[in-house]
Every structure is written in C-alpha cells, then in structure tokens.
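Subject: Sanity check before I submit

Could someone independently write out the structure tokens for this chain? I want to compare against mine line by line before I put it in a report. The sequence has 586 residues.
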Amino acid sequence: MQFLHAAPRFLFFTGKGGVGKTSIACASALTLAARGKRVLLVSTDPASNVGQVFGIRIGNQITPVPAVPRLSALEIDPPGAAQAYRERIIGPARGVLADEVVRSMEEQLSGACTTEIAAFDEFTALLVDSELTRDYDHILFDTAPTGHTIRLLQLPGAWNDFLQAGQGDASCLGPLAGLDKQREQYAAAVAALADPQRTRLILVARAQAATLREVARTHEELAAIGLGQQHLVINGVLPATETADDPLAAAVQRREQAAIAAMPEPLRDLPCEQIPLKAFDLVGLDALRQLLDSTSPGTSQTLPAEPALQAPSLAELVDEIAANGHGLVMLMGKGGVGKTTLAAAVAVELASRGLPVHLTTTDPAAHLSETLNGSLENLRVSRIDPHAATEAYRAQVMASKGAKLDEAGRALLAEDLRSPCTEEIAVFQAFSRAIREAGRQFVVMDTAPTGHTLLLLDATGAYHREIARQMSDSHLRFSTPMMQLQDPQQTKVLLVTLAETTPVLEAAGLQNDLRRAGIEPWAWVINNSLAAARPRSALLRQRAHNELKEIHSVASQHARRYALVPLLTEEPVGVERLRALSRSQD
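---
Independent answer below. Compare away.
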C-alpha cells in the first residue's frame, strides 16, 4: 500500500463517516506491526469502535492488543478526559477556597466546551515528545468524521493563537486557566501537524460523488492550515468481475466508476489507491489482515438467492409520524449510514402530504441541498452552520452586553468571543431554536455522526440542569430543549443503521446513551439493505446473506418499530428518487 510506504511517525485517517476509516486504520496498524514497528493506534472519535473491531476492551488507557505483538491502542474518551481535566483544576482548590467558589468552578467546567478542551488536551499530548509516546515508531489516529476532525486539527492553532494573544481570564476562565499552562504543548502540536516529515493524512472515501466532493473540501481546508502531506484511498470499490448478469451490481459499478472519473480537480494530483469491496464484515484480526491484501478472495462460497424480506417501509413509519401534524423528527446514527438521505426522504414524504416541513442539519459536513437537488412545496431547507451561527452569536452579544460597556470593555468582550468555546455555545443556541419550531410544524433534523451529536446533547443537558437549578425555588413552570427531546409526543428519534455488525452495535450503544438521558428512540431504519434488494452477484449475495442475522437482531432485540430500505439501482438524489426510496418496500 503506497500510503504506508516510508510512513512518517504520525498517520491520520480521516474522511466522511462510514467510509471505512477505522477498518483501514486498524489494518494499517497490523501491517506496520508485522514489519517490526512499535505502533500506537489512537481513536479520537467520541463514538470509537476500535475495541469492537479488535474484539477487546480498550478505553482511555494505552492498552496492548494481546494477539498482536508491538501493537497498543487508546480510545480518547471525552467524558473521562473531562472528569480528569476538571479534577486537575478543581482538586487543588478544595479545602483552600470557600465551598461556594469551588461550586462555581465546578459549574463553569460542566459544559460541552470543557469536554472538547479536555479531549483536545489529550490529543495534543500525543503529538509531542514525551514519556507517553517515546516507545512508539508510529502513532496512527483513527479520527472522528470529517467536520469534527477538521475542528480538532484546527484547534491547536486556534488555541495557540488565542493564548498567544494573552486571553486567559475570559468567559471560559476555568478551561483557559488550564490551557494557559499548555502553551508549549500546543505550539509543538502545531509544528508536528505541519511537518511533512512527521505527519501524513490519509483521506478515506468511497466511490461516490458526494463523498469525493466532501473529501476535496477536506483536502483544501486541511492544506490551508499546513497539513499538505496527503494520500487518497477509495475504499470498498465493487470489482468489475461481479457485474455479469446482475443489474444491481452493474448499476453500482457504473455509478462508482463515473464518480471516480469525475473526481474533483483538487484530488487528481494526490497519490491515490483503491481497495476492493470484500464479502466479509471487517471485524477480527483475520478479516483486517485481508483488507489490504489484494490477493484475498472476494467470496468464500456461492449462496442461493435469498427470499424477499417482509419488513415495513419508511413510508409506513411516516404514516405514524404524520398523524400528529407537527413535531421534531431526529435522525441519528454512525457516520456514513445515510442519515442525510433518509432525513431528506422523510421530509419529502411529509411535505408531499401537504404538511409544512423544515428540513435542517447539525452536521458540519452534510449537504442537504445536493441530496434534494430541487425544491418542493411546503418544504424549507436550512443548515446549522457553525461559522454563521458563531458570527451571529458574537454580533448579538456585542449588541446586547457590549452596548453597556465602554470602549475598553467592548474590546475585552470581543477578544473573549474569539475563544473557540464560543462556537459550542452558538451551535447549541441554533439547535435550540430549531427544536422550538417543532411546536407548530414538522422539523426533520439530520444530525452529525454519533459522537458529535452526543456532545451537543451533553450541552443540552447541561443547560437543562442549570435552568432547573435556577427555577427550583420559583414554583414556575418552565420548558427546556431537553424536556422536548424527552417527550415522545413532541420528538421522534429514528436511529439509522446498516445491516452490518459494527453499525448495529454502535446504534445499540447510542440507544443506551439516549435512554440514560431520558430519550427513548422511536424507531430504527436499516438502510441500503442488500438482502432486501436481492442481488445476483456472488459477492453481493454473500454480503446479503451476512445481513440477515443483523436484521433479525434489530427486529427482535433492539427496535420497538423499524423499517428496511433496500439498496437502489439509482442513487437516491432528487425529490422523485427520494420519494421512491421511502416507498421502496411498499
């Protein structure tokens, strides 16, 4: 594999959710370890599944992988990192400062901003020479989906610039007090990321037009902050040998080759490799070792065609959703399972019934307009853009709080609002406004991949707890965004997955996380099912056969209600194809 030739110390695997970053990162770690190198594999994804891939429990401590000599792994756990970070700052104050001061510090450090800073603090520690990383020849980072990763890789420079400006006592007083002690660490992280002799980015994509467009944007954004050493890997490409006598396989192969041929110009000069689609799930060491092996056979056996599955369609779920006349519909799940497409399909189906619908997204990397590729009566489309939301929030604060300050005070407030924490607050406010709209119309929300969404819900929960504390003695009725999310009459959460082991396990984990927050998922949607599409290709039939166990587990163990959406011959782009998608099981 060319992207592993003369590999530098730091390798980052990034790209849109669901393209196979984790599998390729794990397979690369095995390859380098087999060459005699000492390797540390790190997941920076808040919804990491590296442990599931290897079949072991990893967590927030460097853990040797028992079956692989010279390989260790680490999953940066944002809540755990935040707890340790808070204790480092607050611990020395206990018994020294007054109790009310300590409680104030605890409140100040309870939000999503602190969680992000703490995880980021652990990330940068791995990029500098220290006892923690001294023993490793290579450190591989399996990153969160694109939008989250771009923010993570921009943060060393953002925080470094902010601290160099001397802003250490603003609204994020507690976090910044801790960050200020790490100036040298962040400066060293910036230098490591920008050094092509030390850092290489592997942009992972699928042979899909939308995915390649996003990778092109990622390439340019990361190159703009100095990360110029990049390779492109196109994963899961269907071999041409599988297309004979199978219209579905032939359509998929034509679609993929057309997307590769029309690859955006910025990607054409990058070193590029293609990894063929495999018939097996990429779980376990044997499967991972075959992933990067071009001589590995595609299928293990010839299987008979499976009978058509009898399962509810997406339109049947929409029938129940539409009965209320308004409400919030949130689609959640692992990156790459098709949340954006299904959110658009649900919104189009509701609007086609004459119901007013606002379709929006919290995913920094989502492109709803490209999926819709047109307009429809009763349907309004928007995006919670972090940059736009942050600028609007800064303008609002300057116009309100700033109006009461003198020139020096306004200057200090403006500097405070340049803190990277400001974005978290601004996005939460935009999220809350969208939720409120659901009281009078349908709001269909395409969310960011799992980990990023959980951080947003963490901010929602922190806001709810603060409001509840403030209102505890007033005996007045109040409502918060979290209360609306917890009310099944107002909010319906649809968990989107694929009929594969890792996406189903992650969706089940997300369901447990939501339940702990008092949010009960309303339904599951199994997307892009080959078992429902009945392919003829031996490779696709093998994958369809593998799906049956996962479909059964969703239907019998996890979901109160579910829908099955088959893989279609034509890519579901445009209003008419989206309607066909929702009704494809009728």
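---
OP: Matches mine. For the report I'm noting this point. Confidence is low (pLDDT under 50) at residues 145-150, 167-178.
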